[in-house]
Design brief:
CATH architecture of the largest domain: 3-Layer(aba) Sandwich
Helix content: 25-40%
Bound molecules: nicotinamide-adenine-dinucleotide
Low-confidence stretches: none
CATH superfamily of the largest domain: Aldehyde Dehydrogenase, Chain A, domain 1
Number of strands: 20
CATH topology of the largest domain: Aldehyde Dehydrogenase, Chain A, domain 1
Shape: globular
Strand content: 15-25%
CATH class of the largest domain: Alpha Beta
Largest sheet: 7 strands, mixed
Distance between the termini: 72 Å
Oligomer: single chain
C-alpha cells in the first residue's frame, strides 16, 4: 500500500500488505510463542532486560524515528522530537522497572481457615490495534505493557501510518526477543479486523481508535467473550472559571485544541468560559489562534502541520459547514489556507467558533481536527451541566487560581481524567482512560498494566485436617 506524506501529498513509501494468510501466520506464531515457546518461559529478569533493550534501541534511533513519524503524520517535528519518541522509550523503561513490583503475588488469609494466593498471569495472545494520531507512542504503550505482563502480541498499526511501527519491529528484532513474541500485520482494519478479533486463539484485544470501530471490535470479540480494553473518542470540555489566570488559561487552551492539529482523543474541542471573563478570553484566544504558524511537518518553525489525509480534512470541513448552518459564528479559520507553499498538503486553518448552539452537531460529535467551540456559561452549575452533556467522557481541564476548589469541582465532571491548570499530561505512573462512549479500561499506571493480566486465585484449605463444613456436607 502507498503511504502518503500529508505535508506534501506525495508518496512516502510502499508497504507490503498483510493478507488473511499472514494474519493466520501471526496468530499461530504468537500462540506458539505463548503456549510452548520461549516467551512465556523466560524469567521476569530476562523480560525486564528485553524491554530495556527496546527502550535503548528507540533512544539510539530517536532522531531518525522522529523524522519518520513527522513525514508520515505531518505533525511538527518539534512534537515528534520532544514528545512522541522520548515518551515511547520512557514507557518501555517504566514497565521494565515496575513489572516485578506490579506482578508480585498477593496472599490473603481468610478467617474461616483458608489462604488465598492471587497471581497476576498474562492473558496469552493479545491483539493491539492502534490509530494514526500517535502511531509510535500508542503502539509503545500497548507493547510495553502487554510484553511486560508476559503476553505475546500481534500489533496492527493504522494503514495510514505504519512506518514507525515497522522500525520498532526492527528494534525489537535487534533486541533479540524470541520468535513469535511480537508480530506485526499491516493492513486496513476492514480487511483483517474481524479475522484478528474474532479468532478463538486470540485472548485479548487492546484497541485505541474511534468509538464506531470500537463497537465493531466489541461485536467481533463477543463470539468468544474476550477481554477487551477500549480507548475511544472524546468531546472534552475545558472550563475557564471567572477566577482563572487568563494568560495561562488562553495559552493552555490553545495547546489543548491545536497540538497535533487537534487530532488528539483528549482535544478540548469545547471550551466553556465564565461570562465574567469571556470577552477578554475570546479576544486573546482568537488573536493567538490566528498567529499559529502552519507549516510542513519537517519545518522546525511550524507550530501546526497538515491533517492526516485529504479524507480527514473533508470531514473537518463538513463539520464546519454544518456548524455554520446551525448558527455558529466563525471567529477565525474555517477553511483551507491559501498559502501556495501549503497547497499540496492537507492543511486546515485553526478554527474558532462562537455562539454554537449546544445541540449542534459540532458541539456533540468528535471532529478530530483544529476546530473549537468556545461557549459562555453563567455560574458553575451551568458549566458542569454543559461539560457533562456529552455522550463521551474522556478528559477535561479546569482553569482556576484556586487549584484546590478546581480539583474538588473535577470530582463532579464525568470524565476519566481531569487536569487542573494544565493539559495533556500523560505519565507512565498514572492510569488513563475514559467512561461512557469514550470506552473502558485503563492504559498506563498500575491499573493500566494490570489490564494485560488476569487474576488467578488459588485457595488452600488451612483448617486442621481440611475439615470445613463444605467438605463434609455429604460427609459419611
Ligand atoms: P479508527 O477507529 O478509524 O482506526 C483505529 C484503528 O482501528 C486503525 O488501526 C484501523 O485500521 C483499525 N480498524 C478500522 N476498522 C477496523 C475494524 N473493522 N476492525 C478492526 N480494526 C479496525 O481511528 P483513527 O481514525 O485511526 O484514530 C482516530 C480516533 O482514535 C479518534 O476517534 C480518537 O479519539 C481515537 N483515539 C482515542 C485515544 C484514547 O486513548 N482514548 C487515543 C488516540 C486516538
Amino acid at each position: 500500500m502507498k503511504v502518503i506524506n500529508p505535508s506534501t501529498g506525495e508518496v512516502l513509501a510502499d508497504v507490503a500488505v498483510s493478507g488473511a494468510k499472514d494474519v493466520e501466520l501471526a496468530i499461530k506464531s504468537a500462540r506458539a510463542a505463548f503456549d510452548s515457546g520461549p516467551w512465556s518461559k523466560i524469567s521476569l529478569a530476562e523480560r525486564k532486560n528485553y524491554l530495556q533493550k527496546i527502550a535503548h534501541g528507540l533512544l539510539d534511533k530517536a532522531q531518525a524515528l522522529a523524522e519518520l513519524e513527522t513525514l508520515n503524520t505531518g505533525k511538527p517535528i518539534k512534537e515528534s522530537i520532544f514528545m512522541d519518541i522520548p515518551s515511547a522509550a520512557k514507557t518501555f523503561e517504566y514497565f521494565a522497572d515496575h513489572l516485578e513490583e506490579y506482578l508480585a503475588e498477593e496472599k490473603i488469609t481468610i478467617p474461616a481457615g483458608a489462604e488465598s494466593r492471587l497471581l497476576r498471569q498474562p492473558h496469552g495472545v493479545v491483539v493491539l490495534i492502534v490509530p494514526w494520531n500517535y502511531p509510535l507512542l500508542i503502539a509503545s504503550w500497548k507493547l510495553a505493557q502487554a510484553l511486560a505482563a508476559g503476553n505475546t502480541v500481534i500489533l496492527k498499526p493504522s494503514s495510514l501510518t505504519p512506518l514507525t511501527a515497522l522500525e520498532l519491529g526492527k528494534i525489537i528484532q535487534e533486541a533479540g526477543l524470541p520468535i513469535g513474541a511480537v508480530n506485526i500485520v499491516n493492513a486496513s482494519g476492514e480487511a483483517v479486523g474481524e479475522q484478528l478479533c474474532a479468532d478463538k486463539r486470540v485472548d485479548m484485544i487492546s484497541f485505541t481508535g474511534s468509538s464506531e470501530v470500537g463497537k465493531k471490535i466489541l461485536s467481533y470479540s463477543s463470539k468468544y467473550v474476550k477481554k477487551t480494553i477500549m480507548e475511544l473518542g472524546g468531546k472534552s470540555a475545558g472550563i475557564v472559571l471567572a477566577d482563572a489566570d487568563l494568560e495561562l488559561a488562553v495559552n493552555g487552551s490553545l495547546c489543548s485544541i491545536f497540538l497535533n492539529q487537534g487530532q488528539m482523543c483528549t482535544a478540548m474541542s469545547r471550551i466553556l468560559v465564565a461570562k465574567e471573563v469571556y470577552d477578554d478570553f475570546i479576544k486573546d484566544f482568537t488573536a493567538k489562534a490566528q498567529r499559529i504558524k502552519l507549516g510542513k511537518g519537517m519545518d522546525y518553525e511550524a507550530q501546526m502541520g497538515p491533517l492526516i489525509s485529504d479524507g480527514q480534512r473533508k470531514q473537518v470541513l463538513k463539520f464546519v459547514e454544518s456548524a455554520k448552518k446551525e448558527g455558529a459564528k466563525i471567529l477565525c479559520g474555517g477553511k483551507i489556507p491559501s498559502d501556495a507553499q501549503l497547497k499540496d498538503g492537507f492543511f486546515f486553518e485553526p478554527t474558532v467558533l462562537a455562539d454554537v448552539p449546544v445541540d449542534a452537531e459540532i458541539f456533540q460529535q468528535e471532529v478530530f481536527g483544529p476546530v473549537v467551540c468556545v461557549n459562555k456559561f453563567s455560574g458553575v452549575e451551568e458549566a458542569m451541566a454543559l461539560a457533562n452533556s456529552s455522550d463521551f467522557a474522556l478528559a477535561n481541564v479546569i482553569w482556576t487560581k484556586d487549584a484546590a476548589a478546581g480539583a474538588k469541582m473535577a470530582e463532579r465532571v464525568n470524565s476519566g481524567v481531569s487536569w487542573v491548570n494544565t493539559y495533556g499530561m500523560f505519565y507512565n505512573e498514572v492510569p488513563f482512560g475514559g467512561f461512557k462512549q469514550s470506552g473502558f479500561g485503563k492504559e498506563l499506571g498500575r491499573e493500566g498494566f494490570l489490564e494485560y493480566t488476569r487474576l488467578k486465585n488459588i485457595i488452600v484449605d488451612k483448617t486442621e485436617g481440611a475439615k470445613p463444613l463444605v467438605n463434609y456436607w455429604y460427609g459419611f
